[in-house]
Amino acid sequence: MNFSINCHYLFKSLKSIYSVINQNHHISIFTCFILNVKNNMLKIKASDSEISIKTTLKVFSKQKGKAAVPAKLLMDILKHIPEQPLKIKKRNFNQIRIISFKGNYDISLLNHELFPKYKKIKRTQVCVLNKKTIINIIDNTLFAVGNDDLRPVINGVCFEIKKKKGIFVATNNNILAKYSINSINTKAEMKFIIPKKTLLVLKKNFNNKTNIIKIQYNKYNTYFIFTNKIIITSLIKGKFPNYKKILPLYNKNNKLRIAIKEFKTSIKRINLFSNQIDKKINFSLSKKKSIIYAENKDSSNKGYEELVCKYFGENLEISFKYNDLIEGLYNLKCEEIEIKLQERYSPALIRPISSLETEKSFRLIVPLS
User: Fold this and answer.
1) Which of 226, 244, 262 is a domain's end point?
2) Range of 185's domain?
3) How far apart are CA 354 and CA 7, in angstroms?
4) What stretches in the chain show pLDDT beneath 70?
5) Is residue 120 domain-resident?
């Protein structure tokens, strides 16, 4: 291995994929970057055993070769070298040397043969999405992903794509977020659960050159292919909760319409007066007047506000946890929302009031008993 590359270019490229590496991983090879130089191209791999990233850079190479380089040490070295061309040479089986204008830096290597080899997936379903669509999917679902060791199926976002429609769902048992699109250009039918970390890594690796993302899927892995990168992820095994059965009927037609900005600020103000352990926010809704209030009996603090809203339906008393309300309103790109309510202990359905027909989003929030 013997190649030349700009220091800043290499550091920037490594930084974008470094987030996948777990420095505390019990298998040492997964704390390394795998460098592979051939025909003036540098291929870099990083993995935590569940997610892998491959990226390709142009370099000037004199000799091909592979090396497993400790990721954190390489990042720290490159971070503190001023921008300049670097030469990187493999001196022997277990060491590389980085040569700069003013110094040489030798790094011990691990055995790159220990890094797992991924076979090309066969018999795949294929779907193509643009970057904006993927970002919208992530922004409208990721906040509601669970963190449950006993029920790993809720620790990711469920992708369900059929013909031209895509449905994307996440839940942590207190909140359910559903985002759907009616304009996907594919004939494929696929359903799988993508881990939360994968989607965070995916979004972090988008750049200005990224536009189209090709998704290849089989029952074991999903490949996200774009620009000069490939992200490979293991899928969460199991059956995602049947969210359709979770949806209440809302046959009582209780509706609250309110400006989202004012609603958020009211919730945040009233939370100052709640018990900070349970953070209970109460609503008293009627056609004449709707109020929001909280009380901390330990300190005798109370807060009360009248909501500027339109309410249609029966009088209703209902309570929610502050964090669930704020998360349920997260990233709704609209000026006004509609909240459908059934009964005191039935989930509230929140949806943005929008003119977009190709995209639909709603959230369910479970009330406090």
Assistant:
1) 244
2) 125-244
3) 47
4) 119-123, 247-250, 355-358
5) no
- Phi and psi at residue 214, in whole multiples of 5°? -95, 125
Amino acid occupying residue 79: K
Distances in Å between the Cα of 153 and the Cα atoms of 198, 244, 366 are 14, 16, 19
How far the first Cα of the chain sits from its last, in Å, is 65
Q: Which amino acid is at 240?
A: F
CA distance 256 to 19: 42
pTM, 2 dp = 0.89
Would you tell me how many other CB atoms lie within 10 Å of the CB of residue 168? 23
- Could you give the CA distance from residue 161 to residue 185 in angstroms, rounded to a whole number? 10
* CATH code, 256: 3.10.150.10
Q: How far is CA 276 from CA 164, 322, 326, in A?
A: 45, 9, 15
According to DSSP, the residues that pair with 41 across neighbouring strands are 38, 58
Predicted pLDDT of residue 356: 59
Output the CA–CA distances (angstroms, integers) from residue 323 to 8, 35, 197, 296, 350, in the order listed: 41, 44, 22, 17, 15
Q: Nearest CA to 108 among 31, 38, 46, 197? A: 31
